[in-house]
Amino acid sequence: MTIALKQNSDDLVLQDIENTQKLCSTLMRTPHYAKMGEVGVFAIVQKARSVGMNPLEALNGGMY
């Protein structure tokens, strides 16, 4: 039972990372976010999520 829960938790983490990468790829199509680079956008989005902040607010200057 514990192993199954751990595996499901890992799957959710991987799915979250994949979704974040898709978001970053989509945002990179705009000149504004392309200046930050995909790795920069990914880092800001992940940090925002870790502190419970809306990722788009963080990307638009809400996180210093």
Write the layout of secondary structure elements.
Blueprint: H1 2-27, H2 31-34, H3 38-50, H4 55-62
Helix pairs in contact: 1-3, 3-4
How many alpha or pi helices? 4
* First-last Cα distance: 42 Å
Pairing-aware structural class of the strands and helices?
Answer: mainly alpha
Series of secondary-structure elements, N-terminal to C-terminal: HHHH
Using only CA atoms, what is the Rg? 14 Å
Shape: flat
Low-confidence stretches: none
Per DSSP, what share of the residues sits in E-state strands of 2 or more residues? under 5%
Largest sheet: none
Task: Calculate the mean pLDDT score and round it.
Answer: 84
Number of strands: 0
Oligomerization category of the chains in this entry: single chain
In short:
With 64 residues, the chain is mostly helical. It is 80% helix and 0% strand. It contains four helices and no strands.
Describe this structure in words.
With 64 residues, this protein is an all-alpha fold. 80% of the residues lie in helices and 0% in strands. The protein is built from four helices and no strands. The chain has helices spanning 2-27, 31-34, 38-50, 55-62. α1 packs across α3 (38-50) and α3 (38-50) crosses α4. The protein is flat, with a radius of gyration of 14 Å.
